[in-house]
Amino acid sequence: MASTSKAKVTVTYADVLKSLNTPELQADLDSALEQLSTTVVRLVESFECIAKQLHTIEMSGSTPPFKKRWSSLRKEFRELLWNYRSNASFISGRLKSVPSQSKPSSLILNIH
Q1: Residue 48 and which of 9, 31, 59, 107 are 20 to 30 A apart at CA?
Q2: pTM, two decimal places
Q3: pLDDT per position as a tens digit, 74-89
């Protein structure tokens, strides 16, 4: 049986900060966040459109009622959106709190 060894790469905290503070990365993050927020808005709009269409179908009386199941799905959807918002706020706050080169470089991150 062949032994596989992984190379151990040591990265300092300062190196990580340098890579996170590049204008290119900031521009990429801004673009990705803009696209993500646009996608979430479209997702919410689509969800509401489906809700209206299901209500119209339900009012026609041609199918069993959807309301109970749809209310459950809406509740789960809103919880997911709230979790998304909370996580996005946390990540945004962490990125904004990264100071420029002010953390001690004595902290070593080991990446395997």
Answers
A1: 31
A2: 0.52
A3: 888 888 888 888 887 7
DSSP secondary structure letter of residue 111: E
* H-assigned helices in the chain: 13-20, 23-60, 67-96
- Which of 26-30, 39-43, 91-95 is predicted least confidently? 91-95
Nearest partner of 46 among 74, 79, 67, judged by Cα = 74
Does residue 5 contact residue 100 with C-beta atoms inside 8 Å? no
Q: Which helix (H) or strand (E) holds 66?
A: none
Question: 6 by DSSP, 3-state: which?
Answer: coil
Nearest-angstrom CA–CA distance, 103 and 3 = 38
Tokens representing residue 95 in the block: 């990125």
Who's near 109: CB < 8 A, 6+ residues apart?
10, 11, 12, 13, 16
What pLDDT is stored for residue 104 in this prediction?
42
Which among 34, 28, 42 has a CA at the least distance from the CA of 81? 42
Name the token pair of 87: 């996580």
Burial of 70 (0-12, 13-18, 19+ CB in 10 A): middle
